[in-house]
Task: structure prediction
Amino acid sequence: MTDAKRVLVLWDIDRTLLYVGDIDRQVYRETFAEVVGRPAERLPARGTGVTMPRAIRSLLLDNNVPEPEIPRLLPRMVELLPQHLAAHTSDLREQGILLPGAVAALRAVHAQPDYLPTVVTGNLKPNALLKLQAFDLTRFLDTEIGGYSSDNDHRPALVGVAQQRAQATYGTTFHQANTVIIGDSLEDVRTGIEGGVPVIGVVSGKTSAEELRSAGANVVLESLEDVTRLLDTITAVTAS
Result:
């Protein structure tokens, strides 16, 4: 692998590679009830891509938890959320789905000798790994160099986290010309813009192609099924 050709490919997870239905929301319900001691009446919005710590903060505030209580309750929920998701491992496998083209796309990117595929995700790292492992996707990713909301609740900062980890592991400096995000949400696009890297939008979630383009995605794909186009697009957006 030559230094000049290395490309850091940052995959989003939820609604880009896989979809776990209501499992995440059930985990929020269970964790909220354990920590707060009553049921949650309002849950985080679906498919936004917001980081889990920020979703938890909104969950607490939207369910009338006094703001002074947030600094005490939020870390406890961050701690417990992966434990509750782990209890749903079989549900992830049985109820979750892989999105069209995801495995072929991951395999193709992983097979490129100059590409370093990992994730940048709003998931906490344990939650991300549970989801990826449920579908046997970790074999296509170097999850140790990824960026997770366990690292920072400001998602654009996770680009730099992943770049620094990749540099420490592989000895290459990563920047705008050799890093790309692949994701489905407006938050993925914002992460790329504020994180200083190009974004390939995929119309596999709740966000339309027009919305992704308007938000600033460099290229928008209808799905991951056309693997050749995906690889050509990665080359094109990292060619500068």
Remarks:
- The CA atoms of residues 80 and 96 lie 21 Å apart.
- The chain is about 45% helix and 10% strand.
- The radius of gyration is 18 Å.
